[in-house]
Structure formats: structure tokens, C-alpha cells
Amino acid sequence: MTKPLALLEKYWGHTSFRPLQEEIINAVIQQKDTLALLPTGGGKSVCFQIPALAMDGICIVISPLVALIQDQVANLKANGIKAIALTGGLKTTELSDLLDNCMYGDYKFLYLSPERLQQEIIQERIKQMPVNLIAVDEAHCISQWGNDFRPAYKNINTLRELLPNIPCIALTATATPTVVNDIEASLHLKEVQKFQQSFTRENLAYTVLETEHKILTIEKTLRKYPQSCIVYTRNRKSTISIHEALSRKGFTSVFFHGGLSSEEKKGNLQKWLSGKVQTIVATNAFGMGIDKPDVKNVIHVQLPDSLENYYQEAGRAGRNGEYANAIILTDANDIDILQKQFIHNLPSIDFLKLVFRKLCSFFQVAYGEGYDTKHALAFYEFCKAYQFPTQKTYTALQLLDRHSVIQLSQNFHRKTSLQFIVDQFNLMNYLDKNANVSLITQAILRTYGGAFEQKININTHFLAQKLGIPKGKINETIQQLAKDEIIILDELQTDAEVTFLVAREDDKTIHPIAKEVRQQNELKKKRVQAVIKYIKDTETCKNIQLLSYFGEKTQTACGICSVCKTQKTATPNNDLQLLVRDDVLKVLRQKPMTSTEICVVLPYRENLILEIIQLLLEAEKIKLTETNTYTI
Fold this sequence. Notes:
Elements: H1 4-12, H2 21-29, E1 34-37, H3 46-54, E2 58-62, H4 66-78, E3 83-85, H5 92-104, E4 109-112, H6 114-117, H7 120-128, E5 131-136, H8 141-144, H9 158-162, E6 168-172, H10 177-186, E7 193-196, E8 204-210, H11 214-224, E9 228-233, H12 236-248, E10 253-256, H13 262-273, E11 279-283, E12 295-300, H14 307-314, E13 324-330, H15 334-342, H16 349-362, E14 374-377, H17 379-386, H18 390-402, E15 406-408, E16 416-420, H19 424-433, H20 438-447, E17 456-458, H21 460-467, H22 471-483, E18 487-490, E19 496-500, H23 507-536, H24 542-549, H25 562-569, H26 573-590, H27 595-601, H28 606-618, E20 623-624, E21 630-631
Parallel strand pairs: 1-6, 1-7, 2-4, 2-5, 3-4, 5-6, 8-13, 9-11, 9-12, 10-11, 12-13
Antiparallel strand pairs: 14-19, 15-19, 16-17, 16-18, 20-21
């Protein structure tokens, strides 16, 4: 057997391991089930790749995202190591040939998604392969996604049943003690060897900033730290609007979300990775498997839904060991928005039972019948018929789908898609001459960003409710815009197809899943409450708060987070106030400014600057002009 250090040097060019890597590798080589918790950028992949290379046979790697799989396989191939990824779009013959290569072609790694693992052909071939190791990358997803929107994560233990004598290594950067227990149980790890590196990132300054001017705060940060940046937002529309706002301010940026084509994603990502643009504005799915060591700033403009996700996303900053910032921007409404989105829409067991009963009534399914029958569901009509809130009802249907009570077709997510193909000047001329379509056209442009740059999905039912006009009028207007060649239009089927996977037994149908649904709801509530506590706690070092959440105890403050910095400058408070007052007066002597402009120029907390401005106003040291600027 080739020694691990020799393999590290041969394939990766390094002459020493990072902390804990060697211990983890030796445990795996000794055929021990292993759980490795290493922070983002800690070199997790080497911990299973080197032992797999050191032993005869092939390593099966389960990984959550296609981009992550493709990246690792490309890196292995670049180092002269034979690896195969079974991703989407493969024909049966292609799949069979690739599996034959795994059995007879001296390949060292087979990468699969959890969903691929469920295929019978793959399971049968795996039984015949000379497997030396099972590796589960991003193992925290077993707990998080297995209980949420990817049930296949709960079935990874199929590999343990197929290969009962093969060691397994689970790897993750984020796991609370509860999640660790969930990983061990789900993967049937026996006498597991646990290795955990501290979650501390000594070079990463965790910051929570209260601001009513998030874009201006981003601008201020980018001017102070002009290196690479990720701005995280929760929806596609925001990625475009923030990108456009930064571009208007002279910053180079691209946006990234799930609605872009593969080519657009690849092009935008490459511009950012190569340093051609400073900032990538992305939805929260972005970043897993992306290795860019020189990211200086990771900025969240909305609150994350869990500290697990936040730690992962924030950890993409400062992987080169240099000082970096992980910033959450929050305003007075953010906590309410977070609770409404992730807590208030959680369906109770009673609501779940009610939705199932009404679903059966809607399709006239008799008691004891319905098994394996298919029905086309007009979702909004269903909600209207029973006066159900749409978001909560959608979540309930997803839960029923996840727990195999019904199967909800993917068409449910598809909407009318359009793109404006004239410029704004010609559009305004057109609307002047066609006043009958102006109101709805303007509403589309105000509601959905980026309609001139790309195709956007629009919800005609939502627009009809917003404008208080019939849905048919919306559709009629869209058809006219398409006919007049103002837009290109794709109208896609929006109804869902529901398949009943069990016979109707009303409440009895829900009873078997009730306990697990309650547990999942409680877990989501706890995760959201932990985020709120993290945002509100202005007394405890942010690093200590995060470490405590992940089960790591320390009393040593980091000295660089927003709490630590505030405590350093808080004494003496009068001196700081005098300093801010003098600086406010200094900038106003140069020219009149709004409060927002003053906050951007001065390097102090926004609420402190606003407080000083108010005091100066009351003392008649400054005054407010008719144009809402302040002057001496």
C-alpha cells in the first residue's frame, strides 16, 4: 500500500497534511467508519480521496450537487486519476457502459447523486464492483434535506445494505450535535471514529449591521474592500436588481440564479472566478463546491433560514487565511419576513388533514378508494374553493408528496414566461398609442425585474389579484403584446398532476406521518429562532455564538466581529460621540448631504450617525433644507 503522504505529494504536490487530515485518512485505511467535521476550506475531499487511492478497488462518492460532482471529477482527472460521474441526461446504453468501466476499467472513483443511487441498475452493478470505500460528502444534507425536499438523502443507507463490510466516511463542514447523531443513525455508522476541527475562523469577521439602506451599505463595503465579493439574496429578482444597482454605481458584477441557462451560469461564474468582475450576486444555492480562496466579503442582504446554511455560506470568505468579512445586513422588517416565510407557513397536522380531505373531495374520491389514480389540479381554483392560503397550502402539498401520500408533478412550478424584445423608448411609444394595455404592462415591469434582459416567469393569478382585475384580462393583454411583437411569449401548463399513492382514509392517512411532521416543524422553528437570537444578541461575541450553536464551548472573544468592535469603541462613549459629531460637521462644511450620503461617507455605525444628526438638529448646529439635505 502506497503511503498517504507519498500520494499527497504525487497527485496534489503538497508535502504535509492540514490539521486532522492524516488522522482521518489513517482511520479510513484501518477500515473504520469515520465522521469528519472540518470547516469550509479545510480539505475534506482529500480525506476520502487519498485512502481510496491507497487501497485496491473503487470508491463510491455520494454528493449533493451536479456542479460539485463535476468539479471534483474534473480535478481528479486533471491530476491523472480515473473518475466517473453519473449525472443526468445519460441514455441507458451510456449508463451501462460507464458502469462496466467502473467494474473493469481500473477506475478509482464513482460519483453519484442520492437520487441516482436509488436506480435498480446501479444498485445491481454496485454489488459486483470491487468497492473499497463509501464516501458521503456534505453529509449534513442527510439531516437537513432528507427531512425537507430531497427524501433520497434518507435512503443513502442503501449502500450500507448493499456493501455491509465496506467502511464509510461522512464529511461535512457544519453539523450541530443533533445533526451528528442524525448522520450516524441514517448511515448506520458502527463504532464511528469522530474527528472535529474547531469551527473557529480566526481571520473571518462576523458582522451584523442594522441599516435601512442595504445597497448603499454594500457600496460602502465594496469601496473599503475592493476585492472579490459574494452578495447572497433569497430570490432571483433581487439578484438582478442588486446587480443593476451596483452596475449603476460603477462596480463590476454578475448575477447567478437557478433560472439561468447552463451557458449563462458558466459564463457569469467564470467572469467572477477569473477576477474580471468584483462581485457575484447570487441566490443561496450558489457556492457549494466553488473554491475561490481570495473572497474578501460575503454579504447577506436577507436573513438566512438557519445558522448551518449561514456558516457554510459565510465560510466562502477568506479561505486564503487573510482577513475577510461575513456581513448580514438587516432592517426592521427582516425578522418578520423570516418568520412569515419559514414559520407561519408551516402546516399543522390539523391543516394537513384538512388539505388531504378537501383534495379528495375536490376530485370526488370516495372513502377507501383513489389509490394510484391521477388527477389534474388547478391549484389556485382549489385554494379559492376552500379559502386556503396559497403558500401554506403549497407547503402542505409538498409535505404530502415528501411523505408519499401523493405525488405532485413538476409542472406545478411552471408559469407563463415572457421577455420584452423592444427597448424601453419604443415600449413607451407603444404604450402611449395602446393605453388599454399600459396598466398591466407597467405592472409586469414593476413586479418582475430583468424582463428586457432575459425570459422571466410571471404569475398571472398574482397579477390579477394585485390589480383587482380578471385573470382573463391579464392573459388577453399578454397575447396582444406577443401579437404586436413587443414580447416573446411561452405559455406553459401551470396545473399540477396529482397521483394518490394511498387510498383515502382521511385522518388515518395522516396519522402515520404526524409525528415526523411535528418533529420537522419543530426543528425548522428552532433553526429560525437560532438565527433571530444571533441577530439580536449584541452582547456576546458572534464567533462565540456560532461555536456554541455547533456544540463547541469557548469564552475567548474573537476581537474582530461586530460585537467585539462595538465593545472596543463603546468606551469612552462620550469621546466616540464627539468624534462622530466633529466628522458630521466636517463633511457638511464641504457640501449639503442627505443622511444616507453621510452614512456612506463616514465609517461609523449607521444608528450612531443618525443619532448624532438628530442631536445636531436639536442644537441648531445644522438644518434640513427643502431638498431633504443637511447643511451647516
